[in-house]
Design a protein that fits this description.
Chain A is mainly α. In chain A, 69% of the residues lie in helices and 0% in strands. In chain B, strands 1-19-12-4-5-7 form a six-stranded antiparallel sheet. About 17% of the residues of chain B have low confidence. Classes of the chains: A mainly alpha (88), B alpha+beta (353). At the A-B interface, helix 1 and helix 2 of A face helix 1, strand 8, helix 5, helix 6 and helix 7 of B.
């Protein structure tokens, strides 16, 4: 069962992971600044952005269904940000 | 919607995602501490687009949240202001600062200085040799100057912090200006604002070699250990007894000199020679315009004939620069902003479609 702090942590992690991914993209494509949408870092960024966007639209502890979705989004972010030590 | 208490936590950790066009973060200096602010919840420095010139993007910098009246011994004093644009040199990640606006004078408690920078006022040139004439000063830093050591920052991870390190800057040869591309001077990017108040020394006081002093708006760097004099015509001079040397003092408005001087002369005490404010500013105005232009273009063309992903890419760059900036990773924020330039080029908001 996740709580509000967990949601906050997930959002926090997601934003930071997105920022690092975008920095990697910027560092490698300094002149054009552009990559294809299929670029691995960009795809990961888009997914994280979508999960955070969805989290922002959901209420916690209102309905069982919404809680389940929040839980799934939380886990998706956790998997994408990978460094599980940060989640201890 | 994110519950209110979570939103508060996020805001408290600087992940308030309401990205503004002008982001300000007090970085160093006693004048940026809460003790000397009118409103501790906002930054000491205020930056706005100059309302006197509504059709252009002219930046106006003013430390209007600093309660100078609460700072001991502020009068009489002289002040020096520098606004620098900080950029990296291509793929080298080497950073340099360019002074884009400078002013100095007698500090007046009732008239806090406002420094204006108009990027359009700088005539872009393609010849690298002419760049020295375009900007007031170009300085490279090797990480020795503590005030400019931006190489470490923190990303908050829940209740834990970890240090993120980026490369330090090294001296190199200037071949191009980071904020001048295609004959256009870029507005977006990372700026540093430095306000230094020099508590006026008096004629007859001892001056120490290498230290910068101010008296009645005259700011100078002492060339020798000696004594300050003023002649009948009002010119300041110095005198050293052994060996006997005498000479006139020259004004010094060199950014690098002043940054080094802060390490030696600034302090919390009312007797310290200087007090200062060093604030970072990130402008994301052009990229915001490009995002809006892209979205309007998509709307007009019903998703045909344009890359519908560009708005998303630009939005992510802007967000990423924001997160980096808020976490004190200014160099990284600047790299991200620089990478967005080509995509921002020629993106103008067109509401006529």
């Amino acid at each position: 069962m996740i709580d509000l702090i967990d949601v906050w942590t997930a959002v926090d992690h997601a934003y930071e992971a997105m920022a690092e991914l975008q920095y990697d993209i910027a560092d490698r494509s300094r002149v054009s600044g552009d990559v294809t949408a299929l670029n691995k870092a960009m795809t990961k960024s888009i997914k994280l952005s979508a999960y955070v966007g969805a989290l922002e639209e959901l209420d916690l502890n209102v309905t069982v269904v919404e809680n389940r979705i929040v839980n799934r989004l939380y886990n998706n972010i956790k998997v994408l940000t990978k460094d599980l030590r940060r989640w201890d | 919607m994110i519950p209110e208490e979570v939103q508060k936590s996020i805001t408290a950790n600087n992940i308030d995602m309401e990205i503004k066009n002008i982001l300000i973060k007090d970085d160093k200096g006693i004048l940026g501490t809460d003790a000397f602010k009118y409103d501790p919840s906002t930054e000491a420095l205020g930056v706005i687009f100059d309302p006197a010139q509504p059709n252009t993007r002219v930046l106006a910098f003013s430390p209007n949240n600093v309660n100078f009246g609460a700072v001991p011994n502020m009068v009489p004093s002289s002040y020096q202001v520098f606004v620098t644009y900080n950029g990296t040199l291509g793929y080298s990640n080497r950073m340099f600062s360019t002074v884009v606006a400078e002013e100095h004078g007698v500090f007046d408690l009732t008239n806090i200085p406002t420094t204006v920078y108009d990027p359009n006022g700088v005539n872009a040139v393609t010849n690298a040799e002419e760049l020295q004439d375009v900007v007031i000063e170009i300085s490279m830093f090797n990480g020795v100057v503590d005030v400019l050591n931006y190489s470490e920052g923190y990303l908050n991870v829940g209740n834990k912090d970890y240090v993120v390190q980026s490369r330090r800057a090294f001296p190199t040869v200037i071949t191009s200006m980071p904020h001048i591309d295609y004959k256009k001077v870029q507005l977006d990017g990372w700026y540093s604002y430095t306000f230094i108040a020099f508590r006026d020394i008096s004629v007859g006081a001892t001056i120490i070699k290498g230290i910068i002093y101010g008296i009645d708006g005259f700011i100078f760097k002492a060339p020798y250990d000696g004594v300050l004099y003023e002649d009948a015509e009002g010119y300041y001079s110095y005198s050293v007894s052994t060996p006997p040397i005498k000479g006139y003092l020259e004004e010094n408005h060199n950014y690098e000199d002043h940054m080094f001087n802060l390490n030696q002369s600034s302090g919390i005490s009312g007797n310290a020679d200087t007090v200062y404010l060093h604030t970072q500013v990130l402008i994301t105005d052009t990229i915001r315009d490009a995002i809006v232009a892209e979205v309007i273009e998509i709307s007009c063309q019903n998703n045909t004939g344009c890359d519908f992903m560009d708005w998303q890419k630009l939005s992510m760059k802007r967000m990423a620069a924001y997160v980096m900036f808020e976490n004190g990773l200014y160099e990284k924020a600047q790299v991200i902003m620089e990478s967005a330039r080509t995509m921002c080029l020629n993106k103008k908001i067109d509401l006529t479609c």
